[in-house]
Design a protein that fits this description.
single chain, Rossmann fold, 336 residues, 434 Repressor (Amino-terminal Domain), alpha/beta
Length: 336
């Protein structure tokens, strides 16, 4: 069966192709009866306008590229879902690229999305982002970086105050009477991890607690990595009486390791996470954590990008820093 064209619709409705075009694009007043006749003809014939081709002729595709480092990470999954929601509200479809924390795959996705003529990108880096951002800038592709800190000459930036979040998590444990506070970091080349450890160290120093290098160990932001890091900490002597973990997924893995060692949470070890993914409130015990404002991250990132794509915000790039908040649950308690 041949593809239905605008000429077929015009012939069936008894109007010109120009009239059908005005109905489809809503570019000129058309008599209501005529408009209804055209719409009925389109519906009965199964005609679907080629919006992509029309958009490309106008120089826009109404699509946003979104690159995340790990789509299996529940934090990025929740942020991506909200970005898709906000993009849809603004009339944009979102194309997701998962770089698997691989800078080469990240670059490949940047090239692919540029080839697809996306109108702009929201970018959460796997590392080595400045090269990719510089190429987007050179090709005049609007871009917003979320959850990573980059120079403003490269992009708009939306992130949380990770240093303050790290400080608040550690201070909470100190105020509960803990003195041997360990931390499980993320990869050291990522700005959120570096900023959270700065907050952890500031709180220890402010309360005159010793910084024990053996109590600081790196994870990978995954469940298993958190468990493996906790296994290392449990071998320390004296054993930590609390641990601040730099994301909830690793914190849940750490809690499993603590239980497998025959210890109880929070009786033996208090645990604080970071993110407040949905899972953190339904596990047992429920996880005390630093809540990232998922909705605000997605809303601001999408707004900044749409403003840049539609030309309503000329001038210098912006850096928006959002506040994270402590959510107290069952995985921490006062030291007795």
């Amino acid at each position: 069966m041949s593809r239905i064209t605008i000429k077929d619709v015009a012939q069936a409705a008894g109007v010109s192709t120009t009239t059908v075009s005005h109905v489809v694009n809503n570019t000129r007043h058309v008599d209501p009866d005529t408009r209804q006749r055209v719409i009925q003809s389109m519906d009965s014939m199964g005609y679907h306008p080629n919006f992509l081709a029309r958009s490309l002729r106008r120089g826009v595709s109404k699509t946003i590229g979104l690159i995340v480092p790990d789509a299996a990470n529940l934090f990025f999954a929740e942020v991506a879902r909200k970005i898709e929601d906000y993009g849809f509200q603004q009339g944009y479809s979102v194309i997701l690229g998962n770089s698997d924390n691989n800078p080469e795959k990240q670059t490949s996705y940047v090239n692919s999305l540029m080839a697809k003529r996306v109108d702009g990108m929201i970018f959460i880096s796997s590392g080595g982002e400045e090269k990719d951002l510089a190429r987007l800038l050179k090709n005049q592709v609007p871009v917003v970086v979320a959850d990573r800190d980059v120079p403003l000459e490269l992009a708009d930036v939306v992130l949380v105050d990770n240093e303050r979040g790290g400080y608040d998590a550690t201070r909470h444990l100190i105020e509960l009477g803990h003195q041997r506070i360990a931390c499980i970091t993320g990869p050291h080349d990522l700005s959120p991890s570096m900023q959270r450890i700065q907050g952890y160290l500031r709180a220890l120093q402010e309360f005159n607690l010793e910084v024990n290098p053996d109590y600081i160990t790196a994870g990978d932001f995954q469940f298993r990595g958190g468990g493996q890091a906790m296994d290392r900490l449990l071998k320390c002597f004296p054993r930590p009486d609390a641990v601040f973990v730099f994301n909830d997924m690793m914190a849940i893995g750490a809690m499993n390791a603590i239980r497998e060692a025959g210890l109880e949470i929070p009786r033996d070890i208090s645990v604080v996470g970071f993110d407040d993914i949905e899972l953190s409130s339904v596990i047992t015990p429920a996880l005390t954590t630093i809540a990232q404002p998922f909705d605000d991250i997605a809303r601001h990132a999408t707004r900044l990008l749409v403003e840049r794509m539609e030309g309503s915000r000329p001038g210098e790039n912006q850096r928006i820093i959002l506040k994270a908040s402590l959510v107290k649950r069952e995985s921490t308690r006062k030291r007795v």
